[in-house]
Design a protein that fits this description.
Elements: E1 4-8, E2 13-17, E3 25-30, E4 41-51, H1 55-78, E5 85-89, E6 97-108, H2 115-119, E7 122-132
Antiparallel strand pairs: 1-2, 1-5, 3-4, 4-7, 5-6, 6-7
Amino acid sequence: MANTLRIGTSASGIYLSPKTESTDVDVLQYAPRSEAADAPYVTETCDIFIKAASQALLQARINSIVDVFRMAREYHANGIGSAPYVSFTPDGYSAAYTSEIIDGAIEFDDGALNKATWSRFELEIHLTWTRRNYWE
């Protein structure tokens, strides 16, 4: 069994790992971080690779991630909707650790959106999110 990483609410979200035949997203780099005990938030990064069967499916995966970060901003700014979470299950563990996402963003590398990358329907993306400084 491998590490499992998911972002979203209990009703919707996206698995970032593990990569299987039925999923097209895989984590290239992620390590949970912590800050001093009195810091309310921690900012983390995660590099992912998306491989899809079409440009439409590739864009749908990107939109799913954007939606999670949008939900986080709306929830914390206006109390609208449900709070999204990072859910992390380390290899060998049966229970997931969760932490509420406050905000997040997607960053594309230079040249990531060139025609060759899109025509192969694959993309590496750098995610940054801010979450509560604890796991439940």
